[in-house]
Specification:
alpha+beta; 2 domains; 15% strand; SPP1 Gp6-like portal protein; 413 residues
């Protein structure tokens, strides 16, 4: 009997085999923060699902970008100068900040101040370089300084940065007794790896299922005849060729019997675990085969609330940075200490369909409040308070009335 492979069907090498076999226990048991950062960074760059989860968060939270504005023109100029400074490029840097915040669970913002003109430049410090956060002994939520480990090959000098003055720290996904934040991927890492392994196994199985070999039987042949046939058939016939032999030979194509026809539900179960941990609907992870449009719409609501919460975090980070920009401008004399420094950060809307419904309902409510005002049932202050509350905006009614009166006075002049 003479056998060979028509397509490679060799055993997996031992080294590869060791790399594909995994224990049933959790595959992710980090002990050091740097190990956590390295694993999350690797998953982001090598696992398509991990990349999609992080990038989807940034896309929803920041959309096409954000804008800033200020009531006083001089404050507006200071903020926009900082925002558009080629050394800052905040229109692009905000995406980097949002991505790294989701990836590492924290960001460290380093300030560089020009004491002559009060201009501010910022940089993000790799969280892997910060190996210690010193906090108030009585209040773990109040950082005092941050230590950056030596970075150069020949440098043994550590660097300490004063919290608030030289560096700011922002963290997410942490509890009250933690100093460091946690990545959005940290609970997903084992399942991301398992799903990747499952897909890899499916590719191998499909490859092996398409492999086959020829089983050649030579009847009544002795050893010398078999050796001669083995040399004669040293190379398998090309696809589409014709094999001619007499009744003493029998050729038969043999395929491996791998019973793994449909494992879709196995993969879906793993992906569902990833989707649940990421707070995303299943159809966000490229699987729209289950459910309908109404179900998908209902599943989206918790996800949108999650992204809105992250928007508030980004707004807080930017507010801290812009407050520092204004403070340094006042220290350098570019702005008066008595000037109106109020500014506004406009975040992109997340759910357009929800906004259209809100606009329709808002129009109806304005008509109803106008009718109630004409009937003398509500005051201007109450009507405005109800309107802003319905819109989900936190606006001081009396300040708004003052602004309206001021605007009307300017138009009369």
């Amino acid at each position: 009997m003479l056998q060979w492979l028509k397509r490679p069907f060799r055993r997996v090498q031992e080294r590869e085999e060791e790399g594909t076999w995994r224990a049933l226990s959790p595959v992710y048991t980090p002990h050091e923060p740097r190990d956590i950062y390295a694993r999350c960074y690797e998953a982001y760059h090598t696992n398509p699902l991990a990349f999609a989860i992080i990038e989807m968060t940034t896309a929803f939270v920041l959309g096409k970008g954000i804008s800033i504005d200020a009531e006083h023109p001089r404050v507006r100029d200071v903020l926009r100068t900082f925002w558009n400074d080629p050394a800052n490029l905040m229109d692009e840097r905000i995406y980097q900040m949002c991505t790294e915040l989701a990836l590492y669970g924290e960001i460290f913002v380093r300030f560089f101040i020009n004491k002559y003109d009060g201009t501010v430049r910022i940089r993000l410090i790799d969280p892997q370089l910060i190996d210690e956060i010193e906090t108030d002994p009585q209040d773990i939520e109040t950082p005092l300084r941050f230590r950056q480990r030596p970075t150069g090959a020949f440098s043994q000098q550590e660097t300490w940065y004063r919290a608030g003055e030289e560096m700011l720290h922002f963290a997410i996904n942490k509890v009250s007794n933690e100093r460091r934040g946690s990545s959005d991927l940290i609970t997903l890492l084992p399942w991301l790896q398992r799903y990747k392994d499952w897909l890899t196994d499916r590719v191998r199985i499909n490859q092996y299922k398409s492999a086959f070999l020829y089983d050649v039987t030579v009847r009544g042949a002795d050893r010398r005849t078999l050796d001669r046939k083995r040399l004669e058939y040293a190379y398998p016939p090309e696809p589409g060729s014709v094999i001619i032999h007499n009744e003493a030979e029998e050729w038969k194509a043999v395929q491996p019997n791998i019973n793994a026809n449909d494992a879709r539900e196995d993969g879906r179960a793993i992906k569902l675990m990833i989707a649940a941990g990421a707070g995303l609907p299943e159809h966000y992870l490229a699987d729209s085969s289950h459910g309908n449009r109404a179900t998908a719409s209902e599943m989206t609501l918790p996800t949108l609330l999650k992204f809105e919460r992250r928007q508030r975090v980004i707004r807080h980070i930017l507010s801290c940075i812009l407050d520092r920009v204004i403070f340094e401008a006042q220290e350098a004399g570019r702005l008066s200490r008595h000037i109106n420094v109020r500014y506004e950060i406009s975040m992109p809307e997340i759910d357009v369909d929800d906004n259209q419904s809100l606009a329709t309902a808002m129009h109806q409510m304005v008509l109803a409040l106008g009718e109630a005002k004409m009937q003398g049932w509500v005051s201007d202050e109450t009507a405005m308070r109800l309107l802003f509350k319905f819109a989900g905006e936190e606006v001081n009614v009396y300040d708004e009335i003052a602004r309206i009166a001021h605007s009307r006075g300017l138009r009369k002049e």
